[in-house]
Write a structure and sequence with these properties.
The chain folds into 3 domains: 12-65, no CATH class; 69-80 and 184-228 and 255-266; 84-179, Alpha-Beta Plaits. Helix content is 29%, strand content 39%. The protein has helices at residues 48-65, 98-116, 156-168, 182-210, and strands at 12-17, 20-25, 38-40, 43-44, 67-81, 84-95, 123-134, 142-153, 172-179, 213-223, 227-228, 251-266. The strands form 3 sheets. It has a 4-stranded antiparallel sheet with strand order 2-1-3-4, with no helix packed on it.
Length: 269
């Protein structure tokens, strides 16, 4: 018995898939590849899935060959005042007995923490703690131990005054620098993102026009987070008791960078 004759596809034939129904017009691109049974009218057409799978990559390749991929990178920037002061001080001890050194560091750090916690608006935390043996060429070996104390605050006057008091109590300055606070960084991120996207779109349109092409769509888009270029923090050696240190915040530049791939094609007349 011969194979049943199937009716030809009309200009508006409905192809019923196992997961639902979709319409396909003659001359249009085929739908994505699928597996399972397909029914056209009353007949069963098992080969239609394979036919569409074979045709789709070829048509997609032909379409891609007619397009131009444009790679762009756009950055939006804004200068802001550094509004967060970070101060790092340290307790330092040297001697022949490592246990005595650690005991002295612990005692002095506890006193420094008690004093720092009394100042409102200043965040206090301890940093690294280390003890190591030093063996100079001309002299006996000795132990050196340090532990750091970190102060951060948007109230620079209070933080600087506290740092001066701790220096007078014997702590040594390790670094002092202004930064941009996370709140300021997040506040600028949304505006800079919108600014970078608008500039990217204008630039892409201008390039397409000069090449006598038309923008089709964005193929890929990567939006970076707001960030600042850090600057080296000043370092300090041992200092005698002194007045409170002074500092000037200055400005930082916040940047958001967007990278994109766009598809361009010959403009239709």
């Amino acid at each position: 018995m011969g194979a049943p004759t199937l009716p030809p596809l009309s200009a508006h034939a409905r192809v019923r898939l196992s997961g639902g129904a979709s319409e396909m017009r003659q001359g249009s691109l085929p739908p994505p590849c699928f597996t399972g049974r397909a029914e056209v009218g009353a007949g069963t057409l098992l080969a239609i899935g394979l036919t569409l799978c074979m045709a789709s990559p070829a048509l997609a390749q032909a379409t891609d060959q007619q397009m131009t991929v444009l790679h762009l990178s756009q950055t939006a920037a804004r200068s802001v005042l550094r509004d967060l002061l970070r101060i790092e001080l340290r307790v330092e001890e040297t001697g022949a007995d490592s246990l005595a050194i650690q005991s002295a560091i612990n005692r002095r750090m506890a006193a420094a923490l008690d004093r720092a916690r009394q100042v409102q608006g200043v965040r206090v935390e301890t940093g690294s703690y280390g003890v190591g043996e030093e063996r100079p060429q001309n002299g006996p070996s000795r132990w050196r131990g340090t532990q750091s104390l970190i102060l951060t605050s948007t109230n620079s006057d209070a933080a600087l005054k506290l740092a001066g008091a701790l220096q007078s109590g014997g702590l040594l300055m390790s670094s002092l620098a202004y930064e941009v606070s996370p709140e300021t960084l997040r506040g600028a991120e949304e505006d800079l993102t919108a600014e970078a996207l608008a500039a990217l779109d204008r630039r892409a349109g201008s390039i397409a026009e000069r090449m006598h092409l038309a923008m089709l769509r964005y193929r890929d888009l990567h939006v970076g987070n707001a960030e600042t270029g850090g600057r080296p923090a000043p370092r300090f050696g041992a200092m005698a008791a002194m007045a409170a240190p002074v500092a000037e915040p200055g400005e930082a530049v916040i940047r958001v960078t967007i990278e994109a791939e766009l598809l361009l094609a010959t403009a239709r007349p």
